[in-house]
Amino acid sequence: MRKLNTRWMHPRDQITMIIDKIYRSGLTTTSGGNISIIDENGDVWVTPSAIDKGTLRPTDIVCVKSDGSIEGRHKPSSEYPFHIAIYKSRPDIKAVIHAHPPALVSFSIVREIPNTNVIPQAKHVCGPIGYAPYELPGSEELGTVIAREFDKGFNSVIMENHGTVVGGRDLSDAYQRFETMEFCARTLINGSTIGTPNYLTDEQINEFESQIPRLLPEMDEVEHPSDERAIREQIQRIVLRACDQGLMISSYGTVSVRWRGNDFLITPPNVARWDIQLKDIVQIKDGKREPGKIPSRSTWLHQEIYKRNPHVNSIILTQSPYLMAYSVTGEKMDVRTIPESWIFLQDIPNMPFGSHFAGQEAILNTLSVNTPAVIINNDSVLVTGDKLLGTFDRLEVAEFSAKSLTMGASLGKLVPINDQQVEALRKKFLS
Fold first, then answer.
1. What are its GO biological-process terms (predicted)?
2. Model pLDDT, residue 39
3. Is 204 within the bounds of a domain?
4. Has residue 208 been placed in a domain?
5. Is 209 domain-assigned?
6. Does 247 share its domain with 343?
7. Can you give the residue range of the structural domain that contains 96?
8. What's 152's domain CATH number?
């Protein structure tokens, strides 16, 4: 995963940027959580104590010098001692994030660790998760029990009745781990509301991770005419919008748009989705890829969808919180919640894990005008459409429907519109 290029950013600017993302994503409160970076001099830059996370500025960040002295306008976070303890225990860790994201707090108060084998990249990104027994916040004892877990090799730790703490080789790495871990926990909770989550074996995850894409040959020359550049802008806008709305996370999500004939543009792997740049997007022309770039590992699937479905001009493959509840449980999502849902989606079948691998035909044989989207078990949702904005709208409608169904399941028996009402919709809107 290519992280945000922070090489030229001062630690205080990095911290301000990431705490803002965490706060605006609803993963911490005004007063909760803290972030730090240790620099090459051994100085630790850390968020201040009792300062509004929603308005934090670079000048608010505090520096705890390697000799223990403190520089800054504020006091450092009361929990900075455990950050120091982690850095002493693990010199390879250069950034630490601690917060109280709701789903992970849920696991901490039932004293469980989320099983990341529920989706492939969760285990890959988070790694094994440690567990730190409860100690008084801000105490040396808390620093000791947390550092002990990191000393065992864990980069992610559940803090009993408290929250979570993660470390990374830089702040972008730590943030991706933090975000993915919370997403995994939320997926398990949502899935448990409607059914029973199914887990992948280590062998299945290894198969996913070791997939060697059918790498297309490179073109000799590449051109970027104005219509091609316009598509790049569309893709970038939609990816960023999906991230802002919680429909895509840093570590997963692919968007492609047909260009001319069966040529198309597609997002790359190994780029934090919220930091995607126009130049990152890969052109696929005449079965060849843009020189020097690697397209998404799902490029083969996108290519075949365009070849076999002339009506499809855009594809989004992503993980959104409530649709993933149906993905990890394999439960059938009944889109007959409200008329709009059925008109937009009609039916969303579940496809087995692995059906999105190169060379597989199941998804290709299922997608059609009347079946524009599929849920891939333990992996993602794939949505197709004409214009990219319309495809994104379809994703939103599907996610809203899944959210309504998941929330409704806690209230009582779900009662969708009936067959007669569906037939009336078919005649009025789809004839």
1. pentose catabolic process
2. 95
3. no
4. no
5. no
6. yes
7. 11-194
8. 3.40.225.10
Domain boundary pick from 179, 194, 209 = 194
On whether both 19 and 120 belong to a single domain, the answer is yes
Run means of pLDDT, 10 residues per run, the chain, 431 residues: 65 94 90 93 94 90 93 91 94 96 96 94 91 91 93 96 95 94 96 96 85 80 96 98 94 95 95 93 96 93 96 97 96 88 87 90 95 96 97 95 93 88 83 70
Smallest CA-to-CA distance from 165 within 102, 93, 84, 96 is with 96
Same domain for 70 and 148: yes
- Please give, one letter per residue, the 3-state secondary structure of 41-92: CCCEEECECCCCCCCCCHHHCEEECCCCCEECCCCECCCHHHHHHHHHHCCC
How many domains, the chain? Answer: 2
Contacts of 98 (CB under 8 A, 6+ apart): 33, 34, 35, 79, 82, 83, 159, 163, 164, 165, 166
Number of residues that make up the chain: 431
Tokens representing residue 395 in the block: 């994703």
Structure tokens at 1: 């995963």
Whether 207 maps to a domain, the answer reads no
Written as one string, the DSSP assignment of 342-376 is HHHHS---EE-TTTTSTT--HHHHH-BTTB-EEEE
Q: Which amino acid is at 58?
A: P
Q: How far apart are CA 110 and CA 284, in angstroms?
A: 48
Q: Which amino acid would we find at residue 393?
A: D
Q: Which of 288, 249, 242 is nearest to 271 (CA)?
A: 249
Which contacts qualify for 353-357: CB closer than 8 Å, 24 or more apart? 353/200, 353/204, 353/377, 353/378, 353/379, 354/204, 354/207, 354/208, 356/298, 356/301, 356/317, 356/380, 356/382, 357/208, 357/211
Which residues, 6 or more positions from 419, have their beta carbon under 8 angstroms from its beta carbon?
A: none
Same domain for 234 and 190: no
Residues 297 and 184 in one domain: no
The first and second tokens of residue 104, run together, are: 């992970």
The closest of 78, 42, 76, 44 to 60, measured between CA atoms, is 76
Pairwise CA distance, residues 242 & 274, whole Å:
9
Nearest CA among 367, 320, 370, 323 for reference residue 343: 370
Are both 31 and 169 inside the same structural domain?
A: yes
CB 275 within 8 Å of CB 332? no
125 and 17 co-located in one domain: yes
